[in-house]
DNA repair protein RadA
Amino acid sequence: MAKSPAFRCSECGWTTLKWVGRCGECQQWGTVEEVGVPAKGVAAASVPASRAARPITELETADAPRWPTGIAEFDRVLGGGIVPGAVVLCSGEPGVGKSTLLLAVAARAASTGRRVLYVSGEESLAQVRLRAERTGALEPQLYLASETDLATILGQLRDTAPALVIVDSVQTVANAANESLAGGPSQVRDVAAALTRAAKDAGVPLLLVGHVTKDGSVAGPRVLEHLVDVVAHFDGDRQTALRFVRTSKNRFGPTDEVGCFEMTGDGILEVPDPSGLFLSRSATPLAGTCVTIALEGRRALPVEMQALVVPASTAQPRRVVNGVDSSRVAMVIAVLERHAGIALGNQDVYVSTVGGIRVTEPGADLAIALAIASAFRSTALPRELAAVGEISLAGEIRAASAAKRRAAEARRLGYARVVDEGVALVRSAVTETLAAGRRERQRDPLEAVPGF
């Protein structure tokens, strides 16, 4: 009789008959653990009438009850608020503001009379108290505990009977019955499963803080993201005060919403209308600038593209970008040289966004091209113009996704002309030039764009 696999990888589930240091499937070290010999067979159990399978058409639908956190931007990301019994995993880089935001959520919930338990495994009670005092999060219904033992935390849940639980962070909590170190794959799996089960049984929402690895993914086994209901990621450049919150998984709402926050000395603040954060404050039009309407989730945000073109001082021209994809900028430069007749082979080109935002979508191609052309010619574009469009290698300009939403946001912000109607003129001019087969252009395609 063949032997049953007695060892399994905690990351991918690969099984083997003997212990090995490295998983043969996912190639991870130290993830193969003994699981014991499984049972030879499981007898079928009788199913009570109340739990019998029913046709899906006979089931009634009802929206999950929610209660708002008091922070509108966080509620937007969650889908309208917190669902009782939901488990939310909040991840992000160190220092991005995860603990500060969740402490603010705890204070808002406590101010409504709900009892909140905030468990910190990284900071002492005095440190959390100082941060709460600095950010104005002192509430009598907010209970603090500094614990790293799983059994003790479960006891705190039983004795406190809170309406909201926050654990910061799941990688610092350890199960005494597990001999591995805290933060290891097996420990994180056991801790997350136990806390999730306790939250589901009590119908209490649970917010978990998770560390990330150097590549930005959640630290620990992949099963951690499968256990929770919502995976929210905090994103932002530590050199700027702007923070974004996105969800990569949400069982109770959409995953394309984005919450905007600003980190200040008094805590983290909501930014309900971030339309002016990514625009310069110049009163007069400047050469080398063009505004585009970028999409962040469902939000349409105006972003100013800035370009600088100067003669190259070396044999190899420089291409320096900030906030945009370097490969797309290189493609736009090549298209401008080939189809618009702008000689940039001996020019240094610098492209950047305003406000520290990162734009990688193809809808910003046209704004980048116009900013570079404007800088090359030292000609400023009109202030009421915004450019949205994707540029192909053939020189065509395609309409970007969600064009109506972008156009509506542009009109709301006072941009009277969105280069989308002008795109057709540019496309026709480029097509005529290519069809004629002329090596030297007789008509500049960019002259069809208003302002040139």
Notes: The longest strand covers residues 299-311. The domain at 72-272 is CATH 3.40.50.300 (Rossmann fold).
